[in-house]
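Record minuted for everyone:
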Amino acid sequence: MSRSSLLMLGALLALCACHANLLPVPTRPAEDPDFTVEAVPEPAGMEPVAPGTFRLQPGDVLALRTISPAPLEVPRLSVDDAGLLHAPLTGAVPVAGASLEEAETRLQERLRRFDRFGIVSLTVVEPAGHRASVLGAISKPGTYTLGGLTRVSDLLAMAGGLKWTEGDAEAVELADLEAARLLRDGEPLPISIPRALTGDARHDVPVAPRDVLFVPALRGATVRVLGEVRGPRLVSWRQGLRLSEALALAQGLTSDADAADVRVIRGPLSAPRFYQARFTDLLQGRATDVELARGDIVFVTKHWFASGTEVLQRLLPLLAVGTAFAL
């Protein structure tokens, strides 16, 4: 057996110890004398701005029509990589960064040599130059066209949301949303993606062409919920995550669960700390909900008649699966 397996087995043996040897779990991780809270500053956000004018970008496809006794109509014209529009009789006209009205004026000036009274009309057929990329641990990574005002939350929804994997024992969220960033011109914007998903206007900012939303894979930012719950799983950890929330995300307790004996394992398996939470006291208003720490393992035991061997047989493979996903 490997050293990591031995450490895991030792931790589980301690987990199955008598209730009397377990301390109550601290209400907040900061109250745990052996737990160090890592301060992670949250981005300040950006001042909300009014939606700007549509500006042409390389790749946009336009339709050209002139209102004239000798009308001209071209159903598809693309702005090339140099930002130029090549229309009949006008030659190459620079339009990148221009509004539709400005582009119409530039083309109309070129056409005056051939049609003194013609009026140019441009319409957008396909805003293919207005695209943003979504990369990382999301369901459908790729490049997406920004049809009108598109905010960060809209772009993430277009990409199918965060990436998950389904297993026999757990449904695992594989994305670290806390560490996700929106990059513009190669620099991260000072916004929080989780705050953007709550609709906070300072963080749910409009996406600009060529922006990149990067959502990294999960690296330890989890709480594992195992044992007598209906849906054992890895829960994505965030600051302030409560025991009741983690259990709810695991679809609640089974009929065999001992709600008075919920174990919390904190710290590395080489030197774990073991606590007990009486969830029955919380449900009856006699206790404060417990705030969980990054990397905690929550294990809901059976009623008193469950043997330690049964607990070990059930917990060891589940914990091993969770450890594999965390690597």
Remarks:
- The CA atoms of residues 45 and 200 lie 9 Å apart.
- DSSP finds seven helices and 18 strands in the chain.
